[in-house]
Design brief:
Blueprint (H helix, E strand, L loop, with lengths): L1 H16 L11 H4 L9 H12 L6 H7 L13 H8 L10 H16 L9 H14 L10 H15 L5 H14 L5 H9 L9 H15 L5 E8 L6 E9 L2 E5 L7 E6 L5 E5 L8 E5 L4 E5 L3 H20 L4 H161 L3 H62 L17 E2 L2 E2 L4 H18 L1
Antiparallel strand pairs: 1-2, 1-7, 2-3, 3-4, 5-6, 6-7, 8-9
Helix pairs in contact: 1-6, 3-6, 7-10, 7-11, 8-11, 13-14, 13-15
Pfam families: EF-hand_SWAP70_N, PH
InterPro entries: EF-hand_SWAP70_N, PH-like_dom_sf, PH_domain, PH_SWAP70
Main location: membrane
Amino acid sequence: MVGLKEELLKSIWHAFTALDLDRSGKVSKSQLKASEAGRPGPAWVLSHNLCTVLNVPHDPVALEEHFRDDDEGPVSNQGYMPYLNKFILEKVQGNFDKVEFNRMCWTLCAKKNLSKSPLLISDEDAFKVWVIFNFLSEDKYPLIIVPEEIEYLLKKLTEAMGAGWQQEQFDHYKIALNTSREGLSAWDLIDLIGSGQFSKGMDRQTVSMAINEVFNELILDVLKQGYMLKKGHKRKNWTERWFVLKPNIISYYVSEDLKDKKGDIILDGNCCVEALPDKDGKKCLFLIKCHDKSFEISASDKKKKQEWIQAIQTTVSLLKAGSPPPHKEARQKRKELRQKLLAEQEELERQMKALQTANENKQRELETVRKQLEAAAARAAEEEKKRLQTQVELQDRFSLELEREKMVRQKMEEQVAQKSSELEQYLQRVRELEEMYKQLQEALEDEKQARQDEETVRKLQARLLEEESAKRAELEKWHLEQQQTIQMTEAEKQELENQRMIKEQALQVAMQQLEQLELERKEALEQYEEVKKKLEMAANNTKSWKDKVAHHEGLIRLIEPGSKNPHLITNWGPAAFTEAELEQRQKNWKGKKATSE
């Protein structure tokens, strides 16, 4: 019912737009009825005629109630289309004559819109083209037929006329059409077909027959038609009839004017058709089996027979599958394909817009980069100018530096010559230093020998000091014994005196020995002084050599004697032993003294 409603709306739209509308595009009160004359208005007439041809009860009270005056706005505030949907289209059952319905709408709109210029087609043919337009037009308003459907229709007409299709001619027309608008209106399509642009060389009758054939197929759902012989059920005689195949029925008439209908063959999914062998002098036979009756048909030739069998089998298959007629299914597929292509085109346009936006962004970025490059180029040119200026300055400076470098080179060559001379002198001084180094080694050997002699004298002095200490201890012992002896008796004193004398003699001998030791010590001291003088002379020689070496740029590091410990001084001069040795000897002397007491 939705498809039927859409088909009805297209024809009604043409009739409705032919009414005299006010500027707002709404039905005025005068269009409902003429108030002065009392005659019904155009909108009332349209509604009444629609109800009549669609077999819907007409309710004029509902029409006037729907468009009643109100205080809030003009008449027809609710609009005509809501009334049409509610009170007419929703009540349509499908039991009406489509041709009569379309002719009524055509009558209301043709006079106002049909071209006044002469056409190669009759008004009846123009009406059929108008109905075909409503079938093939897009489901959007205002109604137009797109170039793809125009091509389909023109191909069907050309095929029906038995002419060849001029694709190149239509391509040129399509290009010209696409540049100006999306498609054609119904009246433009009538003008195109009536102008004979795509039917040159064809007479009016041929064009009319082609339009009628396409009209029958697309509008009246005539799948196939033609004369064949039918065998009667009662008298069993063969009679020629005009057969018309539609999606669910085969009707047969006395002639092709369709005025005297003789019967129908109701088709459903259980029907079948099969070829029969020739019999009773009849050829090209086939049988149509239905639920309650069978029909024997004789075609004019084998080709017609096969075409009818194929057409009926196709119709039965469509009924089993519940599919629409081939031309409607093809139209739906073409629409779906256009919608798909449109969606793809919209997606492509969206992508193109996105790409264009991205391209514009890129262009802006490139423009920014170009400006940056120009700025960079300007900076680079300025820098190049500065660089060239700097290069000139550097070249001038380099020339000056080169001249200066030549002068410096000359000076360096002079200095090299001078340094070569100084190197010879330096090598001479090195040789002298090597000689001095040998002499210094000899002096160091002398100093080493002097130190060894000093050590020998020191050891001798230490031995003499030990002997002196021992003698002193012995003298103290004797002195104590002498004091002890004084305290003894006179007898003992005498004896002791004798002993004392002996001891004094021994003491004198010891004193002599001590004096002898003193002399030996003095001799050792003199030897020590002599060795010391030699050592000082060696040290002076070493110092002088050190000064010479330092004076000659410090090529050789001198070996110096180590530091000396401070010397102890005794009653007889500098001691030949250290303080630690003296402490050790004092401890030994105290130990011996304690033992003797």
